Amino acid sequence: MKRKVQNFHKELKQIGKENKKSSIAVYFTLRVLVIICMVLQLLRGDMNNAFLCLLSLILFTIPFLIKKKLKIELPNTLEIIILLFIFSAEILGEINNFYRIIPYWDSILHTLNGFLAAGIGFALFDILNKNIKSLSLSPLFLSIVAFCFSMTIGVLWEFFEYTYDRYFYTDMQKDRIITTIKSVKLNEEGKNIPVVIKGIEKTIIISKDKEGNEIITEIEGFLDIGLTDTMKDLGVNCIGAIVFSIFGYLYILNRDKYRFVNHFIPVKQTE
Fold first, then answer.
1. Are residues 95 and 128 both part of a single domain?
2. How many angstroms from the chain centroid is the CA of residue 86?
3. What is the DSSP letter of 49?
4. Do residue 34 and residue 137 come from a single domain?
5. What local confidence, expressed as pLDDT, does residue 15 receive?
6. Are 48 and 164 within one domain?
7. CB–CB of 138/103 below 8 Å?
8. Which residue of 55, 125, 168, 266 lies most exposed, with the fewest beta carbons within 10 A?
9. Own/partner pairs for 245-250, CB < 8 Å, 24+ apart?
10. What is the domain range of residue 199?
11. By the 8 A CB rule, do 223 and 201 touch?
């Protein structure tokens, strides 16, 4: 019996080693791909995309910094998903235009972000709950904290997208063509009553170049400058956060039955 237990522990250790090898393999593979992409962007003179590649390389190090500095162990599944998520969002989504080529690519990533961020927020307080004797947080409270943490991360990301678009002339908050607008700015009497314009067929934009020459740009419908995209992103982030919060609540009530949640929850490193 003792030998069987020892063999079982050896098998668990071997599985752990293989898992870490797989996450390291994914890390170096994606890192090489990003470096290649960054070199190509520099050769093309596209500094914005080169910066996104650099940002991706920095973000790749976050899981390892968390483990080293905070002494928190990330499950192999969670670690790989985080790395793939960063690559899918910045390299495939922004640089290779997957956001426009593949329908719902953006929505899928933001939903996943909401799910993963909720898992991280849940884990942080679950670790405190288990290691501080004077602290006794209810499952419902942990779920609410996980949800709020996820939504905060989602909002901060939208702040980043807005800032990057404003100062670097990118379009991370994707514009959309709409045919109806509502605005109190159009109310000639200055009242706080929106004027509604429906069925907009086209918009003519008049601008000037550096030499003062007039440029006329005509588009179908009316151009929404990122508001719809931002609210959609926060909406699907909310869905992902709610889904994990529910599973997190059930996990606290019955850790054995819902142990698959362990794959998405960081844990405190054992000495």
1. no
2. 8
3. H
4. no
5. 39
6. no
7. no
8. 168
9. 245/118, 245/122, 245/143, 245/144, 245/146, 245/147, 245/150, 246/143, 248/118, 248/119, 248/122, 248/139, 248/142, 248/143, 248/146, 249/139, 249/140, 249/142, 249/143
10. 176-224
11. no
Amino acid at 16: G
Position 134 scores a pLDDT of: 75
Per-residue confidence (pLDDT) for residue 69, from 0 to 100: 77
DSSP H or E stretch at residue 229? helix 227-253
| 130 and 142 inside one domain | yes
> What pTM value is reported for the model?
0.81
Q: What are phi and psi of 157, to 5 degrees?
A: -65, -40
252 and 212, same structural domain?
Answer: no
Residues 230 and 204 in one domain: no
* pLDDT tens digits along 154-208: 999 999 999 988 998 888 888 889 999 999 999 999 999 999 999 999 999 999 9
Q: What is the CA radius of gyration of the chain?
A: 24
Residue 18: its pLDDT value, please?
45
Q: Both 218 and 259 in a single domain?
A: no
CA distance 71 to 236: 31
Residues 213 and 264 in one domain: no
pLDDT beneath 70: ranges in the chain? 1-20, 269-271
Alpha-carbon span 87 to 226, nearest angstrom: 23
CB 127 within 8 A of CB 72: yes
Question: Counting every residue, how long is the chain?
Answer: 271
d(CA 98, CA 104): 9
